[in-house]
Amino acid sequence: MALSLTFPDGSVKSFDDGASALDVAKSISISLGKKALAGKLNGKLVDLDAPIKADGKIEIVTKDSKDGLAVLRHTAAFVLADALNQLFPGLRFGEGTATEDGFFYDTDKDDGQVAVTDLPAIKSKMQEIIKAGGQIESASMSAADAKKRYANDKFKSQLADEAGDPISGHKLGDFFDFNEGALLPDLKELKHFDLLSVAGAYWESKSSNPMLQRVYGTAYFKAADLEDDAKRRQEAKERDHRVIGRDLDLFFVDPEVGAGMPYWMPNGATIRRTIERYIVDREVADGYEHVYTPVAANLNLYKTSGHWQHYREDMFPPMDMGEGEMLELRPMNCPSHIQIYKHHTRSYRDLPLRIAELGMMHRYEKSGALSGLQRVREMTLNDGHTFVALDQVESEFQKILKLILSVYKDFDINDVTYRLSYRDPANTDKYFDDDEMWDRSQHMLKAAMDDLGLDYYEAEGEAAFYGPKLDIQTKTALGNEETMSTIQLDFMLPDRFDLTYVGKDGEDHRPVMIHRGVVGTMERFVAYLTEIYKGAFPTWLAPTQVVMIPVKNDLHEDYVNNLKDQMVKAGLRVKVDDRNEKMGYKIREAQTKKVPYTVVVGDDELASGNVSVRRYGEDKAWEQSAPMFINAVKADVANYSRKDARQ
Hints:
Elements: E1 2-6, E2 12-16, H1 21-28, H2 30-35, E3 38-41, E4 44-47, E5 56-61, H3 66-87, E6 92-98, E7 103-108, H4 119-132, E8 137-141, H5 143-149, H6 154-163, E9 167-172, E10 175-178, E11 192-202, E12 211-220, H7 223-239, H8 241-247, E13 251-252, E14 263-264, H9 266-285, E15 289-290, E16 296-298, H10 299-305, H11 307-311, E17 319-322, E18 325-329, H12 334-342, E19 353-362, E20 378-388, H13 393-410, E21 416-422, H14 435-452, E22 457-460, E23 469-475, E24 481-490, H15 492-496, E25 501-502, E26 508-509, E27 512-521, H16 522-533, E28 546-550, H17 553-569, E29 574-576, H18 583-592, E30 597-601, H19 603-608, E31 610-615, E32 622-625, H20 626-638
Parallel strand pairs: 1-5, 15-19, 21-22, 28-29, 28-30
Antiparallel strand pairs: 1-2, 3-4, 3-5, 6-7, 7-12, 8-9, 9-10, 11-12, 13-14, 16-18, 17-18, 19-20, 20-27, 21-23, 23-24, 24-27, 25-26, 30-31, 31-32
């Protein structure tokens, strides 16, 4: 019986039943047969020597492809399990697999978990296995044999029960592990790998399950790629806002109080407060009216808005207040701003009506998803909603976008792309079912972008459930893409809440609602900036802008404190380091804390009325009169540190 296999270019060839991916590769060319690592049949990776039993689409996987890297890393996970099994008798195993940037295996043992100090020995054992040069073979095991083999491993036993009968897997010597997908036919390709870390991971990613110990690693085909990866990981570690937040005393999270609920220390609170004051002032100047609204509301509000139906899994359970009253911690601010709109009768003269708030929200995030300030359970959103007449939509959209780009300029955010996010018309469960509304709003959004002449790309299925949106995508410090700002058109909520305004004709009309966030949540934005700046915040944002160091406290401290008072009155954030420590130590610590300006005052400065100034990151200091220095720092703050204000 012949197999009919379709290649990526659309061509079709026949092969004998039971032919393998290797046979297919060799039929194309001898060189491809030598390069082949695995096959990809109907989108699934298969072992190179596995017999193909049905017609389908076939691809040959080589080391030059993303799939090839996945096969290499999957093999590394298998060898990791073999090494762990040899080193730690009685070790229990969860799942192990390749990931986008490496591989892992979950483990559990009674006498203390696998520790980071064990990694060198584990890596050495893996290298020993690889050097021995055994062949990994496709293999299977009956469910009955699996039950006996894993009688003392409840995790593998569960996986075996779920795998069917017989259980497919791979074998190397006496070691067997069941897994889906393809492994390398020869271990000689597994040369360049490293073990990176260990961390807790809940079994099946459920916080109610036992926590296992996950061993992480990565692998590449080339030594240079592994070296580059190590450099990237080191850079990621140095830019990690959680590490910097600890070192600069910006924030902390205390599990005893609540995971995902950050405490802002004075330094972090200063950065956040500076951003909040800046954004409120910018929005007020742009015509927004700032409000405060409650962090909880009657559950019926979110049923009317549709959040309860579409967003329930991300909302905290309602609080039963008795007598039928159910309160909900708000996941979004828009229903609250709708209540502000509804509180008065509105006229066409009121439109556009711009309402903004630094609104606190709560999200029911699972413990495993929480991360520093980037993923939290309580957050404050720089939120705003504009209510407009239909003919004001495009002009208001453009006004909002110009505000966002102006704010980006002040924060030196330059690498942005624009994504128009549309609904998936086939997904009627997720999206409000009104074809006319979606067609109209998506057309308006596109027309506004075309009028501005901005390049954008379109993404189906990325819209909010109530309307399309423009997502402004930025690059993080490590090159990952994330959404910084959004502008969303909404014809649905005004209809659901029966919003009206009195038009020129004296009749009631329905407004259009525009949702927008300029810099997202304070938590995520501070995390983003911390990593972008690597903790070296520009002067206008730095929690301490100037550290002043008297050479001798008894001789110079009065002069230093007088200068400090002048700078504080000028609105600057200044500290005096008068500790009984050596001068070099104090200067180095100011650099470690990444303070923009370090000022030293000794006898010469006292006599001349000057100060000795050192900028963060610079080796040389310069002399400057005290008044000129104060004016220079003020100018540095006033221009948002976009240019050197040194005089």
